[in-house]
Amino acid sequence: MEISIVLLFFFLLIFGGLILNILTSIWCYRDSLRNGNSKEYSLLWLVATLFFPVIGVIIYLIIRR
User: Fold this and answer.
1) Domain ranges, ordered by start, for the chain
2) Quick count: other Cβ atoms within 10 Å of Cβ 46?
3) What are 23-58's pLDDT values in tens digits?
4) For the CA atoms of 30, 17, 55, 38, what is the dihedral angle to 10 degrees?
5) φ and ψ at 24, to 5 degrees?
6) pTM assigned to the model
7) Is the pLDDT of residue 1 over 80?
8) Residue 3's pLDDT is what?
């Protein structure tokens, strides 16, 4: 019984992190478009933040303006 609760918690933690990664990647893409960047540049940020979630978002926040 205790192992199944731990596994459920672990699964929810991983699933939540995946959803958060997808949402921040979409936000970076939309924010880049809203700032007047091209679709290709925005798509680059979408891919970068999908594959490198924490580092990608931090770098995007530093150089976005």
Assistant:
1) 20-65
2) 19
3) 999 999 999 999 999 999 999 999 999 999 999 999
4) -20
5) -70, -35
6) 0.84
7) no
8) 83
